[in-house]
Amino acid sequence: QKEVEQDPGPLSVPEGAIVSLNCTYSNSAFQYFMWYRQYSRKGPELLMYTYSSGNKEDGRFTAQVDKSSKYISLFIRDSQPSDSATYLCAMSGGGYNKLIFGAGTRLAVHP
Amino acid sequence: SAVISQKPSRDICQRGTSLTIQCQVDSQVTMMFWYRQQPGQSLTLIATANQGSEATYESGFVIDKFPISRPNLTFSTLTVSNMSPEDSSIYLCSVVGWQGLNYGYTFGSGTRLTVV
Questions:
Q1: Mean pLDDT, rounded, for A31-36
Q2: Considering chain A, what is the average pLDDT of its residues?
Q3: Residues B26-38: what's their mean pLDDT?
Q4: Distance to chain A for B76, nearest Cα, Å
Q5: CB–CB of A103 and B42 under 8 A?
Q6: In B, which residues are within 8 Å of A74 by CB distance?
């Protein structure tokens, strides 16, 4: 079993839809949870960061962490074609602990 | 947040040869990380590079194949040695720290390596 599981998709939605991206994990030591966006032929870009459980909102993006269920989510409201990218969840135990990535979910938002 | 420059951005190499990838950060950082992203796959950590000490390699990666240098707090190199087609990947360097209100790893734009 992988430490972090993420459905690779692809996920195709119409413009304006609410997108839900999810990851599950098995290591209860994980405390830091991140979402990265990666456009084709680019390096990953940090999108959201959450420490421990709870919600965090930034514009159209909301990150949720449920440590009791070992489940994290990223919601994108009013999705735009420019949101078309691969979204990777990542997590670590903190400090300089190794960052473990999910497989990434490829999202396509069509006009 | 840190800005990372990686060179080369891409290369096509013959099997059996070696390629050295350079990573320059615009600020001093204690640790630098090298990742590999194989086609259609997620990111896998190769090694962690501290200035002034030997790099720490993850399981499945060895120094003879992926030697790393870290001569100062802003620069590191990763060499992919004796390359085979299986080494065709994107190689990324990364540093950790705060980016505004977010804490996480900043990545360079990567080196896209094709081995023929």
A1: 93
A2: 92
A3: 92
A4: 17
A5: yes
A6: none
